[in-house]
């Protein structure tokens, strides 16, 4: 399969840099090829078009990220601890890759409706992990029994996502990973005084 070949990864990594630096609409396939160190035509051996590159980029990067999250939380019995690890790993992953953070937080959101729907398909697996943590938390009594799982997932993902977007928009001027604990505490303890 093409995805297993080194040039596929090279092109994906190059696309992340080019899209982050020039924006999706200005990221020509020729710029991606140049960044990857391959001929323009080589791109088309792996991808149909620029949209396919963007979708593949998100599938690859998000797929790898989800696998890491699943591995990290596999041996943890406490749903609360699993949630903390998820928040922290999300922040660490994007803090370590500035270009990927720009692409996921800004460029993917400017794409057309069909592209966003395909991206949402990839996100479903990540959202299922959040759902499973919440369900398990309710079952084990670590989370409130009256939680609406769908709404809770939206709030968790929304808080994580907005924190990263704000960090990107502020040109990463502060430590994103340092916000993992405060975000986790706000998600688990809310705003009440006790």
Structure description:
This protein has a single domain, classed as Tetracycline Repressor, domain 2, CATH 1.10.357.10. It has nine helices and no strands. It has helices at 6-22, 29-36, 40-46, 50-74, 79-95, 98-107, 113-139, 149-169, 180-189. Helix 2 crosses helix 3 (40-46), helix 4 crosses helix 5 and helix 5 packs antiparallel against helix 9.
Which helices and strands appear, and what pairs or packs with what?
Elements: H1 6-22, H2 29-36, H3 40-46, H4 50-74, H5 79-95, H6 98-107, H7 113-139, H8 149-169, H9 180-189
Unreliable segments of 5+ consecutive residues: none
The 3D shape can be described as: elongated
| Strand percent estimate | under 5%
| CATH superfamily (homologous) name | Tetracycline Repressor, domain 2
> Portion of residues in helices?
over 70%
SSE string, helices as H and strands as E: HHHHHHHHH
Q: Please describe the biggest sheet, giving its number of strands, its sense, and whether it closes into a barrel.
A: none
CATH third-tier fold name: Tetracycline Repressor, domain 2
What is the CATH domain class? Mainly Alpha
**Strand tally:** 0
Q: Give the rounded overall mean pLDDT.
A: 92
Rg from alpha-carbon coordinates: 18 Å
The number of helical segments is 9
**CATH architecture label name:** Orthogonal Bundle
- Count of the domains: 1
Q: How far apart, in Å, are the first and last alpha carbons?
A: 55 Å
How does the helix and strand content classify structurally? mainly alpha
């Amino acid at each position: 399969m093409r995805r297993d070949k080194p040039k596929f990864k090279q092109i994906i990594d190059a696309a992340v840099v080019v899209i982050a630096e020039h924006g999706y609409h200005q990221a020509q396939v020729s710029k991606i090829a140049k960044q990857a160190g391959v001929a323009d035509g080589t791109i088309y051996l792996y991808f149909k078009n620029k949209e396919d590159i963007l979708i593949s980029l998100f599938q690859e990067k998000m797929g790898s990220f989800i696998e890491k999250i699943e591995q990290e939380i596999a041996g943890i019995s406490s749903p609360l601890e699993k949630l903390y690890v998820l928040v922290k790993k999300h922040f660490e992953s994007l803090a370590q890759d500035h270009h990927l953070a720009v692409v996921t937080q800004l460029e993917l959101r400017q794409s057309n409706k069909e592209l966003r729907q395909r991206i949402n398909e990839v996100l479903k697996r990540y959202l299922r992990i959040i759902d499973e943590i919440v369900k398990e938390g309710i079952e084990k009594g670590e989370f409130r029994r009256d939680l609406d799982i769908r709404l809770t997932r939206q709030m968790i993902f929304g808080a994580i996502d907005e924190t990263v977007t704000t960090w990107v928009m502020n040109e990463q001027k502060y430590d994103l990973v340092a916000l993992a604990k405060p975000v986790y505490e706000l998600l688990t303890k809310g705003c009440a005084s006790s």
